[in-house]
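The records we work with from here on pair a chain with its fold. Here is one such record, which you should read through line by line:
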Amino acid sequence: MKDPRSDVIRVMLVDDMRGARTGFMMMLNNAPDIIVSCQAADGAQAIGYLRESPHQLPDVILMDVRMPVMDGIEATGIIKEEFPQIRILILTTYDEDDYAFDGLARGASGFLLKDATPRQLRDAVHAVYNGDAILTPRITGEVINRGVRTISDNARIKLLRGLFNSLSKREHEVAELVATGLSNQEISERMFIETASVRRTVSRVLAKMHMRDRVQIVIAWYQAGLNQMTNESATRFSTGNE
């Protein structure tokens, strides 16, 4: 007999605060297609569960940052190495911006502020499950910019710009929209093309740039300084049409 819940999104909660886990579980379990299948109080405990239960892996992990024994950033790196198919969403607060960037660099699919509404939380789970990146507009720019300030290797910058320049016009446009944090659906609406076409284009961009996921596109875009070039072009365009 088929498990009636086999098609739901299985979520793991990793947070050292029991009350926080309970709150997230209540918000998520209200969705008909999401179930909290397991919980852990720290990163080490989460990794232990995954290793011991390879046939009951979650689809998405909501990962707190600061925890005893092993923090969420270290755990994210290990989990993405051993279980690359699992999507990880970093739960962060305003004073943890640097941690959030480290999470992205370790393979997280994005981050979300802990004060997110139930709807925002459920939408984020759906989004990362479907391959989108979650980069909260309120802190994305600051987080990425903090992380790339130390990138001063001209050869690296030249390499990244060369990779982006090797893309076709459509691929470059999609990469730019991905870098702004838009989902596949939002990109399809912006470009007036099918969502499936956006997915195929993103896949081609990832293959050409030898990248793991769309979060790496975002990081590379900022590291190459293309966000500044885009902003300057937009300013010139606006000024010229006043």
